[in-house]
Amino acid sequence: MGASAWDLLLAAAALMLVLEGLLPFFSPASWRRLFEQATRLSDGQIRFLGLSSMLLGVVLMLVFWG
Hints:
This protein is an all-alpha fold. The chain has helices at residues 5-26, 28-39, 43-65.
């Protein structure tokens, strides 16, 4: 029996947490610098990064599951 949509969503969220934890685990100084630089971005720049990330995610989902 295949995985339900909720199972896939939880697996995707878990994978996202693992991937997001890699940089602070392996290179905390680099992560700190990146975070400090991100705090200096304007709201518009942050929104653009968020929109770009969402669009890339949608495109990847369509490519792999479309």
